[in-house]
Design brief:
The complex is a heterodimer of chains A (334) and B (272). Chain A is mainly α. In chain A, 69% of the residues lie in helices and 0% in strands. Chain A has a domain of 224 residues. The longest helix of chain A is centred in the middle third of the chain and has 27 residues. In chain B, helix 5 crosses helix 6 and helix 10 crosses helix 11. Classes of the chains: A mainly alpha (334), B alpha/beta (272).
Chain lengths: 334, 272
Amino acid sequence: MAVSTVALIALVVGMGALPLLTTNPYYLQVVNIGYLTAIAVLGLNFATGITGQIVLGQAALMGTGAYTTGLLMLRYHLSWAPALLLGVVSAAAVGMVLGLVSTRIKGHYLAITTLGFNEVFRLVVLNESKVTGGPFGLRDIPQLQIPAFGTSTAQQLYFPILLVALGLHGLAVLIYRSRYGRDMRAIRDDETAAEAMGVDSRATKIRAFTLASAMAGLAGGGYVLLVGFISPNNFTIADSIRFLVYLVVGGLGSIAGPFIASVLMVVLPEVLRGAKDYYIAIYGAAIIVVLLGFPRGLSALADRLVAPWIQRPAVAPPVPLQMELPATDDGRTS
Amino acid sequence: MAALLEIRNVTKRFEGVQALDDVSLTLVGGEIVGLIGPNGSGKTTLINVCTGLVSPDHGSIRLDGMELVHRAPWNIGALGVSRIFQNTRLWGTLTVLENVMVPLHRFMRAPLVETIAATRRARREELVAEQKALAALRQVGMLEFASRRAADLSFGQQRLVEIARALAAEPTVLLLDEPAAGLRGGLILEVADLIRRVRDRGVAVLVVEHRIKLVMDISDRVAVLNLGRKIAEGAPKAVQQDPAVIDAYLGDRAHFLVELSGRRGEREDGRP
């Protein structure tokens, strides 16, 4: 077995074994939030890392999912499953509109537009206090209970969240390798060439944004079910930028890198809490070291675990030359 | 039926520069048309207009009677109009094989969900596209580079992959913007041979080239652009002797005109 396979198994087993090593709800909660963050960052990866559209509003999309889920549970007493589903759908719908916008507005202008969207979201949530609870947020949202898995919510939801996060990353690898992923990457590398070669850039961007925002919505809804409290402060521009930092540190377009970066960078400040005021400085220094030392982020290491571009071995050279090939010599479409 | 691309009275201005001025040209399947002209004469713009990257101010472009103007570039590509770019434009982080597979997506029907679930249809489509792409790569002699990242290839290799990419989609109209730029002598002949074979399959081919000799050798018909106007069209021999062409393209006045029109910065030199 290759070293990388062993490392990957060790990583997954390590994550799975964590609740056995500690039942401290605080530790587990921090890691849970790390996994949820990884889901939001994976979504951002589809729009920014894989399709090349810079988005600075991922936190607002996460907030859309969170507030939809929370409001449906509090005001309409929906159970968690339909509320979460509608949270994902609402975020995806907003993301679809952003995707449509992205076909008109490009590059830095798109970044600024999504940044503006994030601020609009915050202001609406802050000021529509009759609906959203305003600056006090939504409190006492019933958390998801699975008593069989432990005593605290953090313990109970650890495995569900971990499984969903890993499942979505597996899904991401499949999409990355498929023709839909190829279309996205082609647009990132050279949009004009992609369009000339038959890639529908509008449909592809909308698809990427919808995926991105659905994952943000799921992370947001999951956060509600885990924490039971949300406020406008959870979904600010600073959070959107934070997600982008995790993505860059993890490696744009890598799948395993941003996952590891997200979990580490959510957990790290808590670990460094003992260092008091210095922790921000240590944190910042760590980011700079990673970016200077590994320009491709953690992906330089993480892609040895899971590299989405490594295809089925059939593609690797040498390709047998005498293989039966479909008719291309007569120019016919099969 | 052989494809027919009719370019009629196409005009395009870029802020103060008349890139195309009432240009008409017809491409027919099974024929290679050479397009020559000094720097900035509008050759690349003509290809851009045909592929929907630039929309003309006036005029019409019809493929088998179907209007192409104002169609999205990807729809034009799906109708069978394929091209290569003057300075190669592969997708650098994709593998060579993936590069050639992308234009084949137009034959693939499985929706995203089916693709993820890897249904029989999705897997078959992917396999067929892969085989076709490998066949196209073999045609240009780049098969052994299939799993390399495109950005790691030399310029000449990228050019060959780009030709494979244009051929893989089985186009009925093929627009080649300086296919031999950056290739060394022997390869130029091979590419010329490949273009002839593509023509013999019934594809309508337009070749923009700088090397007069190559164009005259390969083309069944030659058109000459100068300052956005078509100044001559006909058999290679006849065009070579046309006084207007000699005047504009080969004579001393050419340099003067090149200087005048070169401001647009169109790159015609085969970069390294």
